[in-house]
Amino acid sequence: MYMILLLSLLQILPAPKHLAIVATASAATAAPGSKVSLFLDITPNPGIHVYAPGAKDYLPIAVTIDPHPGVTVGAVKYPKSDTMVFDDERVPVYHKAFRLVDEVSFASSLKTADTVTLTGTVKYQACDDRVCFLPASVPVSWTIKVKAGGSGKTGGSGG
Fold first, then answer.
1. Measured over all CA atoms, what is the biggest interatomic distance in the chain, rounded to whole angstroms?
2. Closest CA relative to residue 142, chosen from 38, 46, 32, 6
3. CATH, range 16-144
4. If the chain, 159 residues long, is cut into consecutive pieces of 10 residues, what is the mean pLDDT of each piece?
5. Which strands form 49-51's sheet, in the order they lie side by side?
6. Domain boundaries, the chain
7. What is the DSSP letter of 16?
C-alpha cells in the first residue's frame, strides 16, 4: 500500500527544471510578405548541460515549430557549442546561456488584422557531471499580429 501511494505521488510531482526557456520574436507585428525571427533564449541551471547538434549517441536539443497556414518556417540556427570531454570522448554541449533563432516568412495572402500564434516544442536531455536526467519536452509559442506596414523584414535576405 505504501509503495502504491509513493508511486502515485511521484507521478503528480512536476519534473525538475534544469533550464529556463524564454520565447520572443524580433517583432510583435508583421506585414503580409515579411519575415520575423523567432528567438529561444535558453539558460541551463548551474552545473547543467544539454547536448548540441552533432552529439553522437546522445539526445541533442532540438526545436520543432508546428505548421501554420500562411507561414513558412526556416531551419533553426544553433550557436557554436562548447566541447566537453568524457573519458576519451569529445561531445558538443551548451552549458551557458544560448540563443536559438528561426526565421519565419508570412505569406502575402495573410490578411491584416489576423493574429498568428506559432507553437512548437523544445526537446532536450539535461545532464550534470554525474547523471543524465529523463528527456524532456517543453511547449513554446509566439504570437505575431499581422498588419499593414508591420515591423517584420520585407523581401530580400537582409538580416
1. 66
2. 38
3. 2.60.40
4. 36 59 93 95 94 91 95 96 88 96 94 88 92 92 84 45
5. 82-86, 89-94, 49-51, 126-127
6. 16-144
7. P
